[in-house]
Amino acid sequence: ESKVNRQATCSAPVNIAVIKYWGKRDEKLILPTNSSLSATLDQADLKTTTSVALSSEFDSDRLWLNGKEESITNPRLQNVLQKIRSLASERAQTDEEKAVLDAHVHIVSVNNFPTAAGLASSASGYACMVYTLAQVYGVTDYELSKIARVGSGSACRSMYGGWVAWNMGTRDDGDDSFAEQTHLADHWPGMKILILVVSDRKKGTSSTSGMGTSVRTSELLQHRITEVVPKRMAAIKEAIEARDFAQFGEITMRDSNQFHAVCLDTYPPIFYMNDTSKAVVQMVTQYNTMKGEVKAAYTFDAGPNAVIYAMEDAMAEIASLTSHFFPSTTPDTFFRGTTTAPPAPS
Ligand code: PMV
């Protein structure tokens, strides 16, 4: 009987959406109610690193997150593992490949940033886990963003570097709901992303529960899905293509605003932005007014932390403004560019 021992280590960066994903039409397959678009950070920035060992010697699957053993029974994680294993089983030919199907995995995952800070840790986490598992199971020929999506929707976008669209798709089986790179990171030299950690507390309403309530109760979300996002997806791709920051920035800020307006339109309402978040909005707005043009753009996810997109020269000014007006946030401020690289074995 054949024995197996395989291992791989990979890392995947966080991504920051400029057209937000908010709402699922299928909660099990994680199929979204609208398409979304983001930039993936650089491998040198906020990222998850995952090692997977697969061995005939292990008696069970086990998982460690940031040094602590966690239960492997999480349904989304189980869905991911199951999907990878079924692909491996379709491909298994040799005795060694068949022995892989009976072996167990040990998965060790670490973030180089505080997990609880609401900084898209599930996006880099699932992207990285899926990519590393795929190496070990030899299934890298499959469109892996479809598996990352089942772990956490936004994770599918961290499977690629640069500018990435998650096309919602129309099929019920999710086969056409995957991520694709629209532009390389170096398409737009000098683009910078600043992350301002306003609070490192865990977010109050999880994205899953928040989306569920919004889909059931918000009329604004229905308008957003049918009328707003399709146009914005096209417009922001054009702005990126043309390297038109003023256009890009306005769409980015309007989309963040609408996402948080949907949260307020949800019943009962959800609040992710706090007073500091709102002060950041005002600071960026005043900066743009002073410049007479949109030179910086804020965006907020399902938490109070602010992300600012700007070109290098404007970002230098924004960075000093934030350290002046928000001194307590500066130690956790990241000042980085976007990536040229997709998740990579290391
Ligand atoms: O993938 P989730 O369940 O963590 O949802 C993320 C949703 C937002 O971060 C608010 C928007 C987005 O597109 O990333």
UniProtKB/TrEMBL annotation:
Q: Which SUPFAM superfamilies match?
A: GHMP Kinase, C-terminal domain, Ribosomal protein S5 domain 2-like
Q: Which Pfam families match?
A: MDD_C (PF18376), MVD-like_N (PF22700)
Q: Which reaction does it catalyse?
A: (R)-5-diphosphomevalonate + ATP = isopentenyl diphosphate + ADP + phosphate + CO2
Cellular component terms per the entry's GO annotation: cytosol
Domain Diphosphomevalonate decarboxylase-like N-terminal, chain residue ranges per copy: 12-179
Q: Does the keyword Oxidoreductase apply?
A: no
Q: Tell me the ranges covered by the Mvd1 C-terminal domain, including all copies.
A: 193-346
Q: What is its EC number?
A: 4.1.1.33
Its job? Catalyzes the ATP dependent decarboxylation of (R)-5-diphosphomevalonate to form isopentenyl diphosphate (IPP). Functions in the mevalonate (MVA) pathway leading to isopentenyl diphosphate (IPP), a key precursor for the biosynthesis of isoprenoids and sterol synthesis.
Stated name of the protein: Diphosphomevalonate decarboxylase
Q: Per the UniProt entry, what species is this protein from, by scientific name?
A: Sphaeroforma arctica JP610
